[in-house]
Amino acid sequence: MLNKYPLWKTLMVLFIVAFGALYASPNLYGEDPAVQISGLRGIETNAATLDLVKSHLDEKKISYASIVMEGGQILARFRDTEQQLRARDLLDESIGDEYSVALNLTPATPAWLASVGGTPMKLGLDLSGGVSFLMEVNMKEAIIKAQESLVDDFRTGLRGEKIRYRSVKKVDDAIAVQFRNLEDLENAETFLEKQNQNLIFVSDEANLTLSAKMTEQRLKETREYALQQNITIIRNRVNELGVAEPLVQRQGQKHIVIELPGVQDTAKAKEILNATATIEFRLVDTDGDLGAALNGRVPGSSQLLKERNGQPVLLKKRVMLTGDHIVDAGSSFDEYSRPQVNITLDSAGGSKMSNGTKNSIGKPMATVFIEYKPTDRVDSEGNTVFEKVEEVISVATIQARLGKTFRITGAGSQAEAHNLALLLRAGALIAPIQIVEERTVGPTLGAENVQLGFQAIMMGFGLVFLFMLIYYRAFGVVANLALGANLVLIIGVMSMIPGATLTLPGMAGIVLTVGMAVDANVLIFERIREEIREGKSIQQSIHQGYDAAFSTIIDANITTLIAALILFAVGTGPIKGFAVTLSIGIITSMFTAVIGTRTIVNAVWGGKRLDKLSI
């Protein structure tokens, strides 16, 4: 029988539409204004903090919907923005020194819907609000770090070749190597030139000194490497923050643009993004005189540092291992319930650690935490001067030869261990960065954009709805039902995909999809009219109309889908947002405009003797 679907096919179409409607429904519940409280610099939020927040709010008679602990943070929900703003100001004044108090919007999705994975669409920076940073990479520090790395490479290489030297140190913008005799100088020059062809070597036989400088090409490559690596590491850190659809891209020769939609906790974001933390493992100098070192007589091969409790420690300058070899890090508790960081090294790092500890069993090894902090000073080029801060976070005796996996202790709290693991896992920044511009888009402006975008979608939907109703009558109603289902499916799919984010250009993609979905129905309906005019029966006309128009619809939509995928692949930011909604809209519109409308037409008119058709 013509134009009759089997029951299973009709039920399948209904199930897909109902499934999409279920996961689109969380967007109907909106969001509650909230205040998010999280600890700063390793301070944890706990039950005592929760009680403190409640007491402050109750004392000032600020009403709240709920206050709960979620993911190590306190989330206070309010019924209106007036109470939210009052609470933020009060808490910022009373506990803001130790805790970050930030405005937030929290989904008001019912518990039963959230239990099946129902969540509202993630909104971009222009719709949900958030924060945007323009960060500058300190290229001078990048060059200095590269030169310090060369110093270590020179020492390792010369020792490996058994070439004796007095000292290797950085002098201004060059690395100077002092030798004992002319033979060692010549052997070293031959070896180092062969190993470092992008350096310029100058020997001074009178002073038995060999100097090495970076070529302009090497300097350029170092700057480019610092910028690209910092972008990669910042992306890793943003992923750790759990931000949906962040934008991290370069701007010019030394700037990075970062957009974090939905983030209102700017203090936490800046703490993670701006940190230049890394660690080094060094042996404690047990042969040195700590008392003499405290009086200023520090051996040339050692360095005096302090532990967190202020206790001085004399360490060897030679670094056994740096954080560059860390491939994974996670926080946990040791057998005494103390916070610890579990570290996994790459193969090269595992070899270095194994070689460094095989002859040091029974000796103390220190874990040094290193941070570059901006100062108030600027250099001759106007760049902020960064201060290198080194702190010993733990000293432990090496009990056995270490390998690719081991653990370190000494973090003050579990939150601090978690943050340290996050930074080590994401990687240490190649060069310090500083925020030169910060822009925050508030939730109010985002809500206005959502409202205007929603009005544009509804206006486009309404005009198309009216046109189809007038021009195609009963079949126009079918097309409009399919159009509504298409809109529901787009929202449902966008809500289900973890990485999908709706932006203002994305809303434009939805409006465009509304028009494209109707195009398919126009082709089908016009073909049905044409078949009827040629004298074919109603059922044959419907059958031929859908079959003949199908190939044209597929061709038109596939070419548009290819263009959308290319936009997504090569575009950034707003262009990707447009491409995402357009791609999803094309796929859902082909389903609703062809299969969806055919299901309705078959159910209403299929298999019946008809003399006329309301089309």
Automatic annotation (TrEMBL):
HAMAP family: SecD_B (MF_01463_B). The keyword Transport applies. The chain crosses the membrane at residues 452-471, 478-497, 503-525, 546-570, 582-605. This is Protein translocase subunit SecD. SUPFAM superfamilies: Multidrug efflux transporter AcrB transmembrane domain. Belongs to the SecD/SecF family. SecD subfamily. Keywords: Cell membrane, Membrane, Protein transport, Translocation, Transmembrane, Transmembrane helix, Transport. Residues 2-103 form the SecD export protein N-terminal TM domain. One of its GO terms (molecular function) is protein-transporting ATPase activity. GO terms for biological process: intracellular protein transmembrane transport; protein targeting; protein transport by the Sec complex. It is found in: Cell membrane. Pfam families: Sec_GG, SecD-TM1, SecD_1st, SecD_SecF_C, SecDF_P1_head. The gene is secD. Its main location: membrane. Residues 433-596 form the Protein export membrane protein SecD/SecF C-terminal domain.
